[in-house]
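hey so u asked for the seq, here:
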Amino acid sequence: MRPCYLPVAGDLFVDHCHNSGKVRGALCPSCNTFLGRVEASPDILDRMRDYAAGHLSSPWFANSNNTSA
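ran it, C-alpha coordinates below
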Protein backbone atom coordinates (compact mmCIF):
# COMPACT_ATOMS: atom_id res chain seq x y z
CA MET A 1 0.00 0.00 0.00
CA ARG A 2 1.23 3.47 -0.79
CA PRO A 3 1.00 5.62 2.35
CA CYS A 4 -0.32 9.14 2.66
CA TYR A 5 2.24 11.79 1.70
CA LEU A 6 1.55 14.01 4.70
CA PRO A 7 3.96 13.62 7.61
CA VAL A 8 1.57 12.48 10.33
CA ALA A 9 1.96 10.53 13.49
CA GLY A 10 -0.64 7.99 14.39
CA ASP A 11 -2.93 5.61 12.62
CA LEU A 12 -3.58 5.52 8.90
CA PHE A 13 -6.88 4.57 7.32
CA VAL A 14 -7.25 1.97 4.58
CA ASP A 15 -8.58 3.92 1.60
CA HIS A 16 -10.96 2.07 -0.70
CA CYS A 17 -13.36 2.76 -3.54
CA HIS A 18 -16.88 2.83 -2.18
CA ASN A 19 -18.26 1.50 -5.47
CA SER A 20 -15.92 -1.42 -6.10
CA GLY A 21 -14.50 -1.97 -2.61
CA LYS A 22 -10.98 -2.06 -4.11
CA VAL A 23 -8.24 -0.94 -1.70
CA ARG A 24 -6.27 2.04 -3.04
CA GLY A 25 -3.79 2.74 -0.25
CA ALA A 26 -3.38 4.12 3.26
CA LEU A 27 -4.23 7.71 4.18
CA CYS A 28 -4.05 9.89 7.24
CA PRO A 29 -7.44 10.83 8.72
CA SER A 30 -7.36 14.29 7.11
CA CYS A 31 -6.62 13.02 3.59
CA ASN A 32 -9.13 10.20 3.95
CA THR A 33 -11.90 12.67 4.84
CA PHE A 34 -10.88 15.07 2.07
CA LEU A 35 -10.83 12.33 -0.56
CA GLY A 36 -14.31 11.24 0.51
CA ARG A 37 -15.57 14.78 -0.04
CA VAL A 38 -13.88 15.02 -3.44
CA GLU A 39 -15.51 11.75 -4.52
CA ALA A 40 -18.91 13.06 -3.44
CA SER A 41 -18.41 16.42 -5.19
CA PRO A 42 -15.50 16.44 -7.68
CA ASP A 43 -15.81 20.18 -8.34
CA ILE A 44 -14.74 20.85 -4.75
CA LEU A 45 -11.08 21.01 -5.90
CA ASP A 46 -11.83 23.92 -8.26
CA ARG A 47 -13.90 25.68 -5.61
CA MET A 48 -11.15 25.27 -3.00
CA ARG A 49 -8.51 26.58 -5.40
CA ASP A 50 -10.70 29.59 -6.22
CA TYR A 51 -11.23 30.29 -2.53
CA ALA A 52 -7.54 29.96 -1.70
CA ALA A 53 -6.52 32.13 -4.68
CA GLY A 54 -8.68 34.91 -3.33
CA HIS A 55 -7.34 34.67 0.21
CA LEU A 56 -3.74 33.52 0.07
CA SER A 57 -0.70 35.38 -1.18
CA SER A 58 1.20 32.20 -2.07
CA PRO A 59 2.89 32.38 -5.50
CA TRP A 60 1.46 28.93 -6.28
CA PHE A 61 -2.10 30.22 -6.01
CA ALA A 62 -1.33 33.56 -7.62
CA ASN A 63 0.19 31.86 -10.68
CA SER A 64 -2.43 29.12 -11.01
CA ASN A 65 -4.10 28.81 -14.41
CA ASN A 66 -7.65 28.96 -13.14
CA THR A 67 -10.07 28.46 -16.01
CA SER A 68 -13.21 27.79 -13.97
CA ALA A 69 -15.69 30.49 -13.12
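The longest strand covers residues 23-27. The chain has a mean pLDDT of 77.
lmk if thats what u needed
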